[in-house]
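Justification of computing resources. Each target in the renewal requires a structure prediction run like the one illustrated here; the chain below, 325 residues long, is used simply to show the kind of job we budget for.
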Amino acid sequence: MDWGQILNNTAYWLFSPETIAYALAATGLAVHFGYAGLLNFGMAGFMALGAYGYAISILTFGWPWWVGIIVGCLAAVVFAIILGIPTLRLRADYLAIVTIAAAEIIRLALTTQLFDEWTNSADGLGGYHAGFRAANPFPEGTYGFGPWTWTADQLWVRVFGIILLAIAVYLVWALMRSPWGRVLKGIREDEDAVRSLGKNVFAYKMQALIIGGVFGALGGVVFALPSAVVPATYTTSLTFFIWTILLLGGAATVFGPVVGSVIFWVIMGFLGNVLPALANSGILPISSVQAGTLRFILVGVALMLIVIFRPQGIFGNKRELTFVK
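Resulting structure tokens:
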């Protein structure tokens, strides 16, 4: 096996657009679950709306790329309101079922021929990159070194994504230190006690759902920036990956989603390279295709072990997750 190439390919994921996009979405999920106690399994829907809102704004209406980002965020806000009004009074398990169904409704609606004029059905959307790349402040050329060698456009995607992620992390940090954040944490622990103090629990939950949904939409935008918007991407497995990232880094932590995303994608990249290599070398008695799929089984096992033995995440505080019990 070529360990140099394997490690080189693995290192790529440290600063990949996927890592940044998932970190943004996991930051939104941290607001939902880690701080508000909302068991949301529909983050894929928020990401899909962000990506499609961005792409459709540019391709169909000819709006600037930055307007497309705003439209994607507004779509997430509308979705959060429509989703939240009938569901935020539900308990955790029922809320989880409803949010899974809502995200699937979004995905299936985007693939139906009814909206083919705007969404291009199951084929997805592409060719919306010109405006964003025209705003690139980096001159043409190659930047970086080793596995982190990028063109100017690739560097611009990463820098822009990191800027959005830094803003999201700062906002979460600031909000959770504010009186609003303290009320939200109280709702997570015992919403009846907070309600007895005269607080509008439903309004706080709705605000948390909207804020986290906007972060998820921004993750969808970053995910779509380097390539295309493909509806098959926004399945329930995407949501489960985000949950794995959140629980890995720590659900009630500010930097946990970022650390969890980096660890998750580095491990996925490493397994995606080393397992097929082991199969091709005859060490694993399976085909290289089966070896590539084996990494998802290992990730599922890892998620179960995290939930059982370290539910607060690697960097989380166990006292911050008493509401899970």
